[in-house]
Amino acid sequence: MKFLLPLVAVVATLAGLALAQDLSTPEPVKQASWSFAGPFGTYDKGALQRGFQVYKEVCSACHSLNMVSFADLAAPGGPGFTEAQAKVIAAGYKIPAGPNDKGETTDANGNPLTRPGILADHFPPPFPNEQAARAANGGALPPDMSLLVKAREGGPDYVYSIITGFGQKPPHGFAVQQGKYYNPYFAGRNISMPPPLNNGSVTFSDGTPATIDNEAKSVVTFLTWASEPNLEQRHRIGLQVIAFLVLLSGLLFLSYRRIWHGKH
Description:
By secondary structure, the chain is mainly alpha-helical.
């Protein structure tokens, strides 16, 4: 009996450690339905435009989109904006202008000189440098969203799970760190990003209800396009190659039947 009690204590301790370890392991991501999934997938243009609106009005306050230009918004396979619409969107952004004809880089108040954006410009970052970004986000560095979907294991399902995974009650025994938020889909389950979306975070121009789920699916569709702008073209080329190979196989089989079949 005197040996049994220490053994029970050791087992209980190990079980407690295993449980604590399990609590920090992220849950499997949610499996959502996407129009762009599969070999025949295409982007939903309405979702792309709604997703751009969510990015512009919500996500761009912290996250950059450095690899996407304003011209891409009107490119084939993209959100479907016209060139005129893309020009208006670009003009709404302030781009660093550089030295003027007097060699000045700041105005009379010491603010950097800027100019309206043009189609050739890329989306400007929300912060001038990494230090400013960390200072505004409690030491955390918000990642650039240009390739975010491709850079994360789980792709669109992972990003969707993260931005819809807030508001859940942490399990018993799990400690949420100071300045962090509980999110069961994030590694360690402590995330620096506050909940980005709420019901009604934006007002969609096409009348789509602005629920958290609709906002999340729209912005994930937009970010997937930002990561893979040539997805539709790649799918078309793939189908054309498959059709060509099928046709070629048929021609080779007919040639065999006509020329070589029965001959030794």
